Amino acid sequence: MLAIFKSYSIQNLVNNFIVLFNIKIESVWNLLKYKPGDPLLFNTSLFLILFFFFLIVYNLFKNNKPARVLLLIVFSFYFYYLSAGYFTVILIISAVINFFFGKWIASTENFPKKRILLAITLILNLVLLGYFKYTNFLLQAISDLRGSEFNPLQIFLPIGISFYTFKALTYIFDIYYDTLKPTKNFFDFVLYLSFFPNVLMGPIDRAADFLPQINKEPFISKDDLGKATFLICSGLLKTVILSSYLEDNFIGRIFEFPLRYTGVENLFAIYAYTIRLYCDFSGYTDLAIGISLFLGFKIMDNFNSPFKATSIADFWRRWHISLSKWLLDYLFKPIQISLRSWRNLGNVIALVVTFFACGLWHGAGWNFILWGIYFGVLMSIALFLQKPKEKLYKALKIHNTKFLRFFQIIITFHFIAFSFLLFRLSDLQIARDMLSQIFDFFHSEVALQFVEKMPLIFGLIVIGFVSHFFPAKIEAAIKKSITALPIAGKIILLAFVIWLVAQFKSADIQPFIYFQF
Amino acid sequence: MISTELKKVILNELNLDDFDLQDETIAQDVPGWDSLNHVNIILAVENKFAVKFKSYEVLRLKNVGDLQKLLDSKLGK
User: Fold this and answer.
1) DSSP letters along A217-242, please?
2) Residue A517 forms part of a structural domain
3) Among A60, A285, A367, A424, which one has the highest count of C-beta atoms within 10 angstroms of its own C-beta?
4) In this complex, how many residue pairs, one in chain A and one in chain B, have their CB atoms less than 8 Å apart?
5) Ranges of chain A whose pLDDT falls below 50
6) Which domain, by its residues, includes A199?
7) Distance from the B43 Cα atom to the nearest Cα atom in chain A, whole angstroms
8) What domains sit in chain B, N to C, each tagged with a CATH number?
9) Do A328 and A421 sit in the same domain of this protein?
10) Contact flag B55-A334 (C-beta cutoff 8 Å)
11) Does B51 contact chain A (CB < 8 Å)?
12) Are residues A140 and A92 part of one domain?
């Protein structure tokens, strides 16, 4: 009897184990395979777990260059595959094209031949990018002009294609201008292009800065470790709490039906969206830079407190720096230098073309084009106002004063916030509705009710802006104290931030309160 | 070594009384030398020395020393 019972229970146990094991394998497989529309983002628990195990293996092999590079490439391609599926092939095609054309451009001293090779490389890259990103937009524009009906083609947009195409082009342009020697190692170039921390959303790092780092044995100093911990904490806090939570619980609702809310809520939503867009993008960049530092790579900064800008030009020196520097070096300057004899007219053409391209780069939509041209026009106007403005400030004796700086920051910020309305809304009617609520239906008394009834949302908006306007000294002091923490302290800090972020991620969507007015 | 004439043209274009321009000096180190003034400096140098640079030659300049070398090559020095 006992034997039967024993064999029964053992069999049962095995069966149960197999069932359990099967379920586990299946669910693990589901978790680790490509799911359309669900890229692996840095602020997800799956990424943090995968990265943790990868880091252990990477550290075991970090002193062996081929193994290190191979590990990074394999992980990068797997990471990219989770976002783009079989379209990972496009990344490989891009790597092959740019590696070989880079080599051919460098191999000839014949300038016209160099130029033709550059033109072919640019065309190939733009055809790849253009086909996936702009075909439907272009066909739609043509059929709108003709007044015919338009059925969009089924074209998958491989995520990150705009970023890695621009990355590849820094390599090509620098070789063309003879400021960079091409790498002889194809795998080094593949790693540069596919490097997982910046393949999906930048920063658009320069090949000239990245390639030399591949050959160096990764060395992570105490300062790097402190900076990486700081950036990963700030990236998680920014992308989850100050971005997703604000979006889901406040911004999204107002932007959907602005006419249901007063001007106060619409204005707060625009401010919240401005800080949210910054936190989302710069938070992701913080994570990318922090993760790279853990691997021993330094990639370029992308944001420098952009809302502290005192002019639109200053804003573009602080916002998405890797893209604005790319556009400055490889598009604006060539046009400007070619048209230099036209003086300011040449500058204006260069500005408008550059910002038109900047808008189009962000997305295939009229709102993005409008957004780009808006900045091109503002920058052109600023060009002509520069000297009269200086004279006026000197006459009023406010030149270089804090008073002037304060107003410049406020005015620049509102130009930026307005531009973000265009950036977000493909339907301009909604932007118009929001502005009409602000100007014709403001109801300032609602502001107090807002603070009272939605303290968390209001608090987060305030925290977002206050932390943004922190003097650089405070940020440096925080970094310094994190650097001074022992390893265990850093781990506890990271664990606390991950826990905090998880609380916000798992929190139910907060019910929204319709204010009385 | 940056020649006195070139230095004079650059400082004049930037409205600077004096600035220590070395071979390694890059635009960002010099007050007012932004991308808009850069084009004015190039034009001023071309006019003063009666030379014409190719766009490609200007775009690959990394520092003031490169500009001096480019100018020297055009002047046959």
Assistant:
1) PP---HHHHHHHHHHHHHHHIIIIII
2) no
3) A285
4) 31
5) 1-8, 516-517
6) 45-215
7) 7
8) 4-74 (1.10.1200.10)
9) yes
10) yes
11) no
12) yes
